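Readers of this paper often ask what the protein records in our data store actually look like. An entry from our holdings is shown next, in its original layout:
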Amino acid sequence: MATLFTHPAVALALRPWLSSLPAQRSVLLGGVLLTMLPDADVLSFVLRIPYEHMLGHRGLSHSILFAVLAGFVFAWLLRQRAGFAALWGFGTVCCLSHSVLDAMTSGGLGVAWLAPFSNERFFLPWRPIRVSPIGVGFFSPRGVVVILSELVWVWLPCLLVMAVGRVWRKRQQTAPVQ
């Protein structure tokens, strides 16, 4: 999996592009939390649910349906702060980005995007992100390799998307009204 340090990069990168959402901490914080939410399934290890089970790691919580429902709950909770559709879209994309990044990793069994209708696991054809060790193995030379691959393949592109979004938004705000 990509690390919990990296999943939030997507929410941070998307935020400047969403002029219809208020620049409130609750919206951004919610987006960041949604990027990490699918990994709550690590509880499956404690509960001794097999990895390959639909409720196992990268199972139902990494599905498209889960992301859509999580985005809906996010929008409903914050509906007083912005338009429901914009919040739902942002929340869904943030949550779904987690499984997309996981599908770009070099290990595991893949992501159950179609759960609960199918437990088939998928990877993307391009998998440049080194899979992260779980637990104390993260604090090892292998963990350093993972962080470096995430910097190159996730953080740098996200920083570029964020920078371009900020420039675009600033130009939109200073453009003369015709």
Q: What stands out?
A: The chain has a mean pLDDT of 90.
